[in-house]
Amino acid sequence: MEISDRYFNRVVFAAMTVGFALLLIAAVVAVVAAQEKQRTTMLVIHTYEVERALDKFSILSEQLETARRGYILNHRQVSLDTYHRTIDAIPLQLDHIGRLTHDNPVQQKRLIALRVEAKLHVDSARQTFDRLANPNPAIQAMADFAVDSSFVSMLELRNQIAVIDGDEKRLLDQRMGAQDEASLMLNIVSGIALALILVIMGGTFWIVLRYTANLNQTQDALRTLNAGLEEGVALRTAELSRANEEIQRFAYIVSHDLRSPLVNVMGFTAELEMAVAPLTVLIDRVDAEAPALMTTEARDAKADMPEAIQFIRTSTAKMDRLINSILRLSREGRRTLAPTPIDLGVMLAAIRDTFAHRLGEIGAEIDVDGLFPPLVSDRLATEQILSNLIENAVKYLQPGRPGRIAVAARSEGRRIIVDVVDNGRGIAQADQERIFELFRRSGIQDQPGEGLGLAHVRALAYRLGGVISCISSPGEGATFRLSLPTVLVDLREGPAG
Amino acid sequence: MSDHTVNIVMIEDDEGHARLIEKNIRRAGIANAIRHFIDGTTALDYLFNDPNGPACNGPALILLDLNLPDMSGIDILAKIKAHPRMKRTPVVVLTTTDDKIEIQRCYDFGANVYITKPVNYESFAKAIQQLGLFLSVIQVPEVGEE
Predict the structure, then answer these.
(1) Longest Cα separation, chain A
(2) Contact A267 B121 (CB under 8 A)
(3) Over its length of 146 residues, how does chain B's per-residue pLDDT go in tens digits?
(4) Which positions in chain A touch B14 (Cβ < 8 Å)?
(5) How far, in Å, CA of B74 to CA of B93, rounded?
(6) Are residues A357 and A475 in the same domain?
(7) On the CB side of A486, how many CA atoms lie within 13 Å of its CA?
(8) Residue A33 burial (CB < 10 Å; 0-12/13-18/19+)?
(9) Chain B: which residues have CB within 8 Å of chain A?
């Protein structure tokens, strides 16, 4: 499932990459096509401009001709005005056309011919007007004659204009065709780009939808898992607390009830011892005064009885010690907890101070100078746990190596994790859970102790809603990890009876 | 039974303990009669209702164990100390508990002496035997009152 998902993701990613690359190409092509279209459009516009200029020139020439003929007929001022206007405008218009077609050598050549023809035409018109303005009627009459030649020049002018115009028309057709092609190209490219955009958008949308759905699903699952986990932790803590409570009660009852028979055993052993004294005297007397009555069994009994009694005494004494230990443990467990804000740094520094003398003796150091998150818990129980752990660390250092003990804490959700790390002799893997049991100890038994400390620590940790565990490499050191709720909530309403 | 002899009432469920206590009392030279009860109900009946019991007749010394099968010795102690005729009767609490809170509770309820039954028999025997001394001291005012 996971593998196929991963494969699928890879394929989708590749497809998307290709899609985006195509889109990029399409965009570049579209830009190029648009530029091409703009270029051809500009050319078309230019051609139109040339045509318009030619038209205007043509109109000016016709107007000049019309004005001349009109003036010959009636000498009207309107014709004269037209003459003056057009005679100046014609060379200017020719210059304009020259500028527009400067990039076309064929048209330029034609334009030179046009200029010659236009000059003839203009000169002929000027002659006519000059003559008409002359008071001499003979000269005036010659003006009519000029019209005849002007007719020819006018035709020639029209022809030349038509040739230039035809060329421009041809150019226009070409350019229009190019423009159409560019437009088509642009349209095609745009269409492809649009299709690509749609496909990629659809793909992206689909992928985003799919991922979002997946993400939501995962989040939901995670949330459920988290809630379950928290609930599980709470449930487990409550269970532990209850189990612990039960054990405490059990320990109390057991230690109490075990003591009663022990009192009897010890008492009657003492009575027996007292009774042995006169019997011993009696046996001795019999042995001395009437050896015939003496038996080997009686003699053996005399020797065995004190030994037996001694064994009973040492055993009961040990049993009494153990029972007292359990009783002490259970009494601790029955104490009412009082959650108060605790500054772990201050508490640990105080604990370190209590070991100052011992630390000086063995040349060990305890580092408790870090930052500690705030904790609300039972002060006495917390102090006992930490004190016990540090005491153990100091007690079981590796000989010949300067002892380094460090205590650090961090927040993890609603819990505080306190690590007591030492570089001492360590605890064998098999013992790492066992050491938390009553009367169990690890390694060489070269230190005084009953095997109670860590059992006590675990019982206290459970009572505080916490857990304690041990990680160690023998010969290198040990880490005791205490996890406590940041805020202690006493699950019980009052002290257990 | 003589009105002026102090009866010893022993409320103790463990026969062995009772026997050891009795032995040590006798060893101390105390010859007073000892009435032994192994449960709270019978003991209370004797204390308050028996014509020869301390409520109706004569002074007594009560040796009380706290762990009884049918009730707590503390309840018996409270009843004795609440009774107008019995409240001056000395009660010696004998128990295996050395819990400070428990001991204080017993004294709060009016226990006169509290003896822990130690496994160390010698000290236990000594404590019991000193009851004789205690007995001779309390005897006088009780008799005077009668």
Answers:
(1) 209
(2) yes
(3) 444 578 889 999 888 889 988 888 888 888 888 999 999 899 999 988 888 777 777 778 899 988 888 888 888 999 988 888 888 888 888 887 777 788 888 899 888 888 887 767 777 788 877 777 776 665 444 443 43
(4) 260, 263-264
(5) 9
(6) yes
(7) 11
(8) buried
(9) 14, 16-17, 20, 23, 67, 96-97, 99, 117-122, 124-125
Nearest Cβ partner for B67 among A256, A268, A270:
A256
Which residues in chain B have Cβ-Cβ distances shorter than 8 Å to A268?
16, 20
CB-side neighbour CA atoms (13 Å) of A246:
6
- Most B CBs within 10 Å, among A248, A252, A260, A322, to test the B interface: A260
Residue A391 within any structural domain of the chain: yes
Query: Do A42 and A13 share a structural domain?
Result: yes
How many domains are contained in chain A? 3
Distances (CA, A) of A303 to A281, A300, B40: 12, 5, 44
Smallest CA–CA separation between B146 and chain A, in Å? Answer: 37
Q: Which residues of B touch A495 (CB under 8 A)?
A: none
Cβ of B14 within 8 Å of Cβ of A260? The answer is: yes
To the nearest whole Å, the CA of A332 is away from the closest chain B CA by 12
Q: Which residues from A are below 8 Å from B when comparing CB atoms? A: 256-257, 259-264, 266-271, 316-317, 320, 327, 331
Asked, for residue A493, whether it belongs to a domain, the answer is no
Domains, chain B, in order of start with CATH, read: 7-139 (3.40.50.2300)
H helix or E strand, kind and range, residue B67: none
Q: Nearest by CB to A263, from B23, B119, B122: name it.
A: B119
10-residue mean pLDDT series, chain A (497 residues): 68 82 85 86 87 89 85 82 87 88 84 85 83 76 68 81 85 85 84 85 85 90 87 82 78 77 87 90 90 86 89 86 78 79 92 89 87 91 92 89 90 90 89 84 79 86 89 90 87 43
pLDDT in tens, B45-58: 998 888 877 777 77
> What domain range includes position A109?
2-215
Record the pTM: 0.50
Query: Backbone phi, then psi, for A268, in 5-degree steps?
Result: -75, -25
pLDDT value of position A147: 66
CB contact under 8 A, B20 and A269: no
Distance of CA B38 to the CA centre of its chain: 13
The first and second tokens of residue A316, run together, are 């009961």
pLDDT at B143: 40
- Asked whether residue A293 falls in the same domain as residue A387, the answer is no
Position A186 scores a pLDDT of 82
Q: Say yes or no: A297 and A392 in one domain.
A: no
Smallest Cα–Cα separation from A330: which of A392, A397, A244? A244
Burial A35-45 (b: 16+ CB within 10 A, else e): ebbeebbebbe
Closest chain B residue to the Cα of A269, Cα to Cα: B121
Among candidate residues A302, A333, A364, the one where a domain is terminated: A333
Beta bridge partners of B115: B94
Alpha-carbon distance of A380 to A444, in angstroms, equals 31
Cα A483–chain centre separation: 28
Residues of chain A with Cβ-Cβ distance to B102 below 8 Å are none
Same domain, A194 and A254: no
ipTM of the complex: 0.77
A268 and B20 within 8 Å at the Cβ level: the answer is yes
Residue A82 belongs to a domain: yes
